[in-house]
Amino acid sequence: MSLWLSLVISAALSYLLGNLNGSVLISRLHEHDDVRLHGSGNAGFTNFFRNYGGLVSLIVILVDGLKAAAACLISGALLRPFGLQTEGAVLGAVSVTLGHNFPALLGFRGGKGIVCGFASAIVIDWRVALIIFLVFSAVYLSTHYVSLASILAAFSFGAAFLVLHRGEAWVRAGGVFLSLLAVFMHRQNLLRLLRGKETKTDFFHRRDKK
Q1: Which terminus of the chain is less hemmed in, N or C, by CB atoms within 10 Å?
Q2: Do 116 and 93 form a contact (C-beta atoms < 8 A)?
């Protein structure tokens, strides 16, 4: 198999995996509903939790995390023969996140890619995963703003790739792209944060609060 064919297969397969959206899938199977018809209309974990709550929300994380990890592992394996395993994993991460955020099979109405990004980081570089986990946890626990925690974790994601992968241009580029994409997906949340109108979410209780 040629390099170009491996690249195309990796990107296409990862994008299709991204279309397997945990929130949409579980809301349909478990709730006989579509999470996108409620709350923010977003097909992500936070909106799912706000509307349905319960331990079933953990299945959403499992689905989205596993599909992202699978995309990175498969793409990395396909590009390993060319000495591009890490680059392949990053390609998988970018493609699966694009598939999650803009799923063609779901009318391009997806999530925001935070769970995908975290799971991808675990596969690509556990140090990056640890950094974004600590940043997200610290910000969320001190503010209960999931969006703020996600935005700052996204910034730390890109920064970590820049610092930890010097000399790996494509790896760094992929990390920065995913970082900026996550911030872009949270642009409305950012505006609400600046206006003081963003909703807080307590994952230990289902009810949201202002």
Answers
A1: C
A2: yes
